[in-house]
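User: Hey, quick favor. My workstation is busy. Could you predict this chain's structure for me?
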Amino acid sequence: MTFETVESSKCSKVLSRVKSWTNPTEFKASKLRAILMGYIVTSTVGEICAYKLMQQDIRAGDLPPYSIDVAIITFALFEVLVAPFISWWGYRHRRALLIAYGSVASLCVLSWYFLPDPTRKEETKFCGVAYTSNSSLFLGVPIRTAVRLVLILSNCIVFVMTRVACWGHGIAYCEEFAPERTHVHYGVMLLSRTIPLILGYSLLTGKVETNMTFQTTTFLIGYVPNLIQVFLSVPKVAPIVKGEQKTDMSDYKRSFLTSLGRVAFNPLAISQIFAMGLLAVALYGYIYNEPEINKVKFNLVEDGNGTVQVTKLFHYFFVMFIVGFAGNLYSKPISRQFRRSVHMKQIIRSTIFVIVAYIAMTFIVGCDQGKVAGLSDELYTNPECSIACGCRPRFREFEPVCVVEEMVTYVSPCHAGCGGEELFDGVRAYTNCTCSSTGRAVLGACSDVPCKQAHAQHGMLLVIAVTFTLLCFQAQGVMLLRIVDPRDKSVVMGVAWFVVTLMTFVCGNLLFMAMRLGMCRWYEGDQCHLQTSNFSNHVGATCAAIAIASLIISIISAFSLRKKNKSSHDTRL
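Assistant: No problem, here it is.
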């Protein structure tokens, strides 16, 4: 054998080996699950960052205050329009689809390296200078802001499409070829979407919020490695799973309208999609309004301290553990077959716990807030002792301070007439306060100690509400995959996104936005800074009522399913 022949043989082996890496034949669902988790977490955090970037322009007065609400509704309507089609289109080439969306998202996010900086505006919280320094009134959109807005919104479109496509096609691929652990896969995807939505806005603060290089690099780290993993982990054709060669599903009667029609005329699927949508509305309504509830009910503002946010993150490890445990409990080898009745019982039980948590948060947990100067149940007026300060509100003006001598809380340092601040033994104190006999006030409401304890209980109940809501979603999502025609698994996910997004981010957002506007007791500078005293009760009661409606739908579905099963059993006899 000549030297050239040996070298040629070695080269062919190396090339064959490299090709085998990018064209695997075996499929492990856990690897695809990790890829989907990376895509969904990155896309969700990208959406949150987009809203934070828009908030910077609102703070500077370059966008109107309602811009974020308009953006949420607009992108929700876009998702409603495209979700069913995106979840259907590309079902023959799901590997190529995952590669395409990951590539486009990675390329688009590069544009954020060149995102123009927002207008910088200094704000002050002190008496005498707040009138001249603080103003976030919208005066028009500058060219710089328009360029920022185009880049932000175009990336948002990509984030939405990537998330919906990867969710629908990814979970359908796992269910088609390796269905044994679908409960686990679906639970991980739920956590990948909901935990960033709940915590992302709070965690993305400080330097992270303004450092676009860091943000963009983080997105690339989220997309690019997972894009590479698609090449290495997902076969081009029907895979081999645990030594068994799988076959692709037939394309017979698999057109978009045919699949959509089969899903639409599946009563159990549609009823559970609506039940899921109602629970999503309740969860979104409470989470989105939680900062306002904390102000009204506990005289607290969200602390941007990193330690506090990390502690909050650890609380949600409990949620991850429970959802993961439930996923394993209903998967092989513990549970060997899918039973609709068992899942309906889980949905009903979990929904009851959700309702109880909302009621307890709303009507049981609370604290004595003491006296707040200028505040009545329905209206706030500037205290007379600080009228001369001419306080013009900051973007986030509510920042309670306590005049200890009189044990009176003021809504901000300026409204307490404070002209400066100092540190005394590590404690921040405001000085030259016209509303204090000693001229001093301390950060935080006078009711901080009992109210923070009550708020901790409130936080634990919220974690419980989130946990059982996700357990409902987990059971409902897997049920949808199992009760529809096998050809329609990705389409039913798209229909679920259609209904849940429409109900939550369009109808639900409009409902709670109207509630915030109608129950504002301190409106100034084109913004509402504090809601009425009954706001938390109205939000909590509304969320509980919406969850009760979801429970009723699930109970009716369970009875219908039981009646159908009994009828089927009698027919066989």
